[in-house]
Amino acid sequence: MKQQKLEVLGMVCPFPLIEAKQAIEALDSGDELVIDFDCTQATEAIPRWAAEAGHSVTNFEQIDDASWTITVQKK
């Protein structure tokens, strides 16, 4: 299993989600995508997309007042 980091800090929605969808396509099943973002809407949009796509969220935490990190494991 490998881990890839995706920094989308400063991007407004829906771009963090669009970038995440593109990045996870390049990964193999079981690999993880670590997404660092600061768009409030993505706190709902990214986990919802992951669930709908069948991926697992293995970590989701708030870094500070307006930034988060989420780890999505590809199905």
Automatic annotation (TrEMBL):
InterPro entries: TusA-like (IPR001455), TusA-like_sf (IPR036868)
One Pfam family matching this protein: TusA
Domain UPF0033: 6-30
PROSITE patterns linked to this entry: UPF0033
Family: Belongs to the sulfur carrier protein TusA family.
Name of the molecule in the record: Membrane protein
Upper taxonomic lineage: Bacteria, Bacillati, Bacillota, Bacilli, Bacillales
